[in-house]
Structure formats: C-alpha cells, structure tokens
Amino acid sequence: MTRTVTVGLDGSRESHAAARWAAREALRRSARLELVLAWENDPYPYATAADESAERTVREAAADLSRRYPALETRTRCLSGRPSKMLVGAAEEADLLVLGSRGLGLAVGFLVGSVALPVVAHVSRPVVLVRAGAAAPYGDGPPDEAEPAGEIVVGLDLDRPPEEPLTFAFETAARWAARLRVVHGWGLPPAYGARESAVPESLAEEMTGEKDEALRMLLLPWRDKWPEVDVDRQVSLGWPARELLQASSGAPLVVVGRRRRTAPVGTRIGSVTHAVLHHTEAPVAVVPHD
C-alpha cells in the first residue's frame, strides 16, 4: 500500500505553510502527498465559480510544490461538505494529516476551534498543526539539503504513559536524525496544596529524582529499538502544559497525546494538548491513543 501524507488546504497562508511542511515530511517518508480542499458549497448562483476556485487552489498548490520538490508525488482532491467531517474521512486513508492551525481562507478556514479542533478530536490518525512562519525542520529546501535544528519535544504522563505518542516521537527523531527531549511535568500531592513552594526543596529534589528514574526505566524499550536517537529527559515540578511549552521554544516539532474519543460530538482533547495547540509557535503533532 502506498504511504500517504494528507494536507488540508483552504487558500490561507497557514495552509500553504502546512503544505510545504507536509511535502518535506512526505519526502522523508517516501510517501505520496495528497492535497485536499474541503468546503461547504451551499446552493447559490455562483456555486460553479466556487468549484472552479477550489480546483484552481489545489492545482496551483500542487504545481508550486512540484517545482520546489521535483521528486515529490502529489495527488489533489476537492471535497464538498463540512470541512471537519471531510478531512476526518480523508485522513482515514492516510498515515498522517497536516493542517494549518490558524487562518481564514477560501471558505471556513482552519481557525483553532472551527475546523482544526473538531478534526483533532475525532480523527484516528496523527495530526500535525503548522502555523505560518513556523520553523521548518529542514529549512525550505528538500529535506536532504539541511538537518533539523533543535530537539523534537514529546510530553509524557508517567501515571498513564501511552505508547503511541512515544513511538511517533522516536520514529520521527530517527527519520529526521534529530535529538529527542522527553518532558514530564508533575504536580504536588494534594496534601501540599497548589503552591509549589509549599514543599521543602530537598523533598522536591528527591521526588524529582524518583520520577526521573521512573522515566529512564520507562524509556528503555524505545531506546533499545531506536539506539540511534539521542534522548534527553526533563522532569520538572510544575504544571505539565507550562513545562512542555517552555521546552518547546525553538523546537522543530512538539508531540502530544490525545485519548481516542467514543462520543460522536464534542471537541475535548485534554487540557495539556489544548494549551500546547493554542500557545506554542512550533508545529504540534497530536497522536491519538487508547
């Protein structure tokens, strides 16, 4: 089966940045890039013009990417319907979905909360959200012409450590020849209240050391499977989202998890993932897990 990276377009600056990010990732994966534009085309006198505009948008985007990356295989699709629903369906046939995380373009756009959040909440594949101007992991040229700068960052909950985000992070770090930083932020037991200063420094250091050792042991199977990946551990006393956001400064990619949903409606994705999506400038990979 042909590997596929799918990118959602809406004509905005952000979606074109996502398309360039997706193109380079498709080349790294030896995958085909599928460019999808989805919009709600209500019956009105200019529907034909809207159809033609959508088709022109994806054709021009595909042509631009082919000029930038001659080795890239592309396919285009225009889908009429609710964008979030259409993109979730398109993602089911792909290995990875890439979206611009902000912007308002041809139709509804990918403003966080309008299209991106419903897609992230319901899709069964990993989703990467890219902001316009986000640092590209390989520069703007083909991926074999530059190495990624900085460390890939992945957030991990030691109480309920899911396998899927870690596997995605290690696979990506190996593919990009990048370092990997695993971040665990932890809070005080209820007996200490909400203030971090309430715990003696010596006790905080002891508890942090215990958690760091637990993290080291947890990572052993992944380090054995991907020995070529250099891994840094970061265990900090503090709100997990804050620690992850601080670590993400300058990162080429941040990886977070999202528990798979069974409810057909709603956009709950978890407080940490929600905070990272809204506040980091780095591309964010949201990986669903059980």
From TrEMBL:
Superkingdom of the source species: Bacteria
Q: What is this protein called?
A: Universal stress protein
What InterPro entries has UniProt attached to this entry?
Answer: Rossmann-like_a/b/a_fold, Universal_stress_UspA, UspA
Q: Which family does it belong to?
A: Belongs to the universal stress protein A family.
Q: Boundaries of each UspA domain copy?
A: 1-131, 152-288
